[in-house]
Amino acid sequence: MSWHKYIFPFLLAFAPALLKSQVPWEKLAIADSLYQAEAYEPALEHYEPVLKYYSEKKALIKAARCAALLKNEPVALRYLKRAAKLGLSNARVLQSDTKLASLRENPGFLKLLADVEEFETRAKNLGSPELLSKLDSIYADYQKYRGRKPDEAAQAKLDSLNLQRIEQLIAKHGWLGSNLLTGRNYCWLVIQHQPLAVQKKYHGLMAKAVKKGEEDPAFLASLEDRMQVSQGKAQRYGTQVDLTERRIYPIKNPEKVDFYRAKVGLGSIEALRKKFETD
After folding, report:
1. What 8-state DSSP symbol labels residue 249?
2. What is the spatial distance between Cα 109 and Cα 115, in angstroms, rounded to a whole number?
3. How far apart are CA 270 and CA 20, in angstroms?
4. Strand, helix or coil for residue 2
5. Is pLDDT of 2 > 60?
6. Which of 215, 250, 176 is nearest to 85 (CA)?
7. DSSP string, 161-210
8. What is the pLDDT of residues 23-39, one digit of tens each?
9. How many CB atoms lie within 10 A of CB 183?
10. pTM
11. What residues does 247 pair with on adjacent strands?
């Protein structure tokens, strides 16, 4: 009698528990503490199992520094390349980072620096004072009636005006990714508060910006979740919450949600629930 008959039902029965344990979040805090204590070898040992799933720029750079200090250049470069895909925009800082000194003559590191310099040039060319001023004005209107004294009707008018303004900028410059604009995520903010048809119109453009490292993948995840929830469907990443009922909207695959969240740089769903319950 084949063992497959017994092992497959066993795996199916325990799959949710196995998937939940895929992202060992507890190791991240330990890794950060060890890094601060300059215990780089154990810090790297704790970063590695988390970063197998988790993509967050600061954690990746810390792990790269640990590996570089331990003279493990291939691992250091692997983490730096992943961080670059999330939008590294200062080659000078990388080059002068003393913890990365062992990489300075490495051809792979030099190529990475060249790529970061190219990204930095694009960001500098895009981020003119005139454009940044327009974006800051859009953001001011975006939050004008979303504070402690909300006015939905007044805000709806401003959201409509903001859509016209942001569409003009997108037509001229393409998707205005936050990684190119010193964290200004106003393009995403405006689009996510528009009707579903508008969100669908710009989803593909935003996804391309994420692939190029110009936009934060967590923002794309939020937009995709918002599109699902607005259609009465379960979300993938668990980013959308009901502020009135103090709950997270239904999640499509709750047993896999931490895996999906980790890939876009979001923390555990349990941490979000705890924050939501205590705030």
Report:
1. P
2. 10
3. 11
4. coil
5. no
6. 215
7. HHHHHHHHHHHHH----GGGTTT--HHHHHHHTS-HHHHHHHHHHHHHHH
8. 899 999 999 999 999 99
9. 10
10. 0.85
11. 242
